[in-house]
Design a protein that fits this description.
Helix content: 40-55%
Strand order of the largest sheet: 1-3-2
Number of domains: 1
Mean pLDDT: 80
Order of helices and strands: HHHEEEEHHHEHH
Structural class: mainly alpha
Low-confidence stretches: none
Amino acid sequence: MRFRPVPLYRFMAVLKEYLQDRKRPKEEDPVSILDNSYKPPHLLGLLRYYTVGRSRYTSHRTVKPKSQSVSVSALELAKIGITLRANESMELIDMGLSQEGTLFAELSLAPLTLDCDLASYLLNMEALELCMVKSFSKAPVEDSAVCSYLLLLANLVHRQEDVHQLQVSGLLHGGGGVTDEEALRFFTNLRNMRHGRCYNRVMA
């Protein structure tokens, strides 16, 4: 029996599309946007690398929120003038709070299409970060991006109405066979994970 070569990077591009319900433009070659210098430890590491993206945040200063227990639901954010928006880069690391005038702000995150398979991918990428990075505060920002992303979403969801608010804002896409109640349970179970640097920066 002979081994057959697999177009690994094209396979990764397809998986990322599936993870975020993103359709690649016909003229865009998935191989052209991939980094051949990266040497992944395994398939999960490769998927995480291209899902997270590279940080454009240059500061190495460790920032922590004043309160480690800050948690504001999606509906409460809307009431205080903070709107939710799906980012355009589709990268998990591209999360942040930007000021819109003097009274309003906008929190942007990568959109997510949640089903059982994608939930498993995300949890495994989270576990990979927790196992491989001893101290998030001393590691590059992207090394804890999945934990930051999931923790931010988890802190926005307290009730099924918050799940619906994420759907309205375009951050959470349906169609994966996951009910609002199941999505709520998924996010609720993520609230006690370690804080990543992106999470701390946004909350601060």
